[in-house]
Write a structure and sequence with these properties.
- With 87 residues, the chain is α+β, with helices and mostly antiparallel strands.
- It has one domain: 2-Layer Sandwich (Alpha-Beta Plaits).
- The chain has 2 helices and 4 strands; from the N terminus they run E-H-E-E-H-E.
- Strands 2-3-1-4 form a 4-stranded antiparallel beta sheet.
- A hairpin with a 6-residue loop joins strand 2 and strand 3.
- The longest helix is centred in the middle third of the chain and has 12 residues.
């Protein structure tokens, strides 16, 4: 079963455009620029939760200008039952 998450990303205001370009380069990520306490939301899916962690640690957090992230793991989607715990 694939793991899905929404990753909220804050960045330095002067680097918003550059951060957005880098985020859009992450394979399999849908990237939305938003207004509010965060600047972007990534809708991303990977084979496992560990792979999601790897994407966050190696491709999102190291981007110059990223100041904060918040990861929300999807437990169930509309019309489905809750996903069983992993780990």
């Amino acid at each position: 079963m694939a793991a899905k998450a929404f990753i909220l990303v804050s960045c330095e205001p002067a680097r918003t455009e550059a951060v957005g370009e880098r985020l859009r380069g992450i394979q399999g990520a849908l990237v939305y620029e938003i207004m509010g306490p965060f600047d972007f939301v990534l809708d991303i899916e990977a084979d496992t939760a560990e792979n999601l962690t790897g994407i966050l640690r190696s491709k999102v957090r190291p981007i110059a200008g990223v100041t904060d992230t918040l990861t929300c793991i999807v437990m169930a989607s509309p019309g489905s039952e809750a996903a069983p715990p992993t780990g």
